UniProtKB/TrEMBL annotation:
The chain crosses the membrane at residues 71-92, 104-121, 168-187, 231-254. It is found in: Plastid, Chloroplast membrane. Signal peptide: none annotated. It comes from Sesamum alatum. The keyword Plastid applies. One of its GO terms (molecular function) is phytol kinase activity. Its EC number is 2.7.1.182. This is phytol kinase. Belongs to the polyprenol kinase family.
Amino acid sequence: MGYGAIMSLGVPAISHAHFLGHHVAVPASALRLFPVTRPKHILIKPSGLRRNTAAVLSAAAGVGGPVLQDFAATALVVGGAYALVSTFDNLTRRNIIEQTLSRKLVHILSGLLFLASWPIFSTSTGARYFASVVPSLNCFRLVMNGLSLTTDEGLIKSVSREGKPEELLRGPLYYVLVLILCAIVFWRESPVGMISLAMMCGGDGIADIMGRKFGSVKIPYNPQKSWAGSISMFLFGFLVSIGMLYYFSALGYIQLEWMQTLERVALVSFVATLVESLPTTGIIDDNISVPLASMVTSLLVFGY
């Protein structure tokens, strides 16, 4: 077959090159017989290398970003918790507020502020464990002081009723364990943990304050509890729960149908109030019974 036949098929018959300054025509057949190749070991694709490097850096940033955010959030929450306790310790030492009121205000605010801090943590799966660091540190302090392995008089006075170290191993310890449980198990995806903490901190905490101040009329089946305390428990437990649910809903963590939610939270608040009013304080602490009743009821009515 001649060059003209090859060209008629649309295939170039010759290739042109320069050799010692002269224009040389090279038949295509010669190119096929003596192809120009490069050694395989020096074939490099810069664009592919750049893509792989970008992918590695992107993956590193994807891992490092959430971790750094969670470290910063943890440090912020630890600092906030320390500032809160120190503030009320100073107020108590200056006799601005009573020790009992200071203890209850710390009970109310520390748990609710801990709950409100959850959105500052990242969306990674490990964020909940970073959040649980703060109550875990408090848990360690309570155990060490409760067993008298160390002595922190300020801590003992701020969280105990009678100033005895062993008290730290009951109500205060149960309190921080519930914080850890709600953070790790329920986190921001479920209303159960939010409602349980709202009932324990907002409901039960305010019930104790109102009961001491206005609790002259006692409940018939439990002389240690008052109508004022129980009504406050139901009302504030309900309001704080709705407030927290709205907070997390507005941030996009949960989606709720509000008419049903109001009814469900009212039921949870009623059950938690009823459990708190029972004469079982000597058997089971309110910091266990109230959040446990709230969790069970919330799981039943919300389903998740």
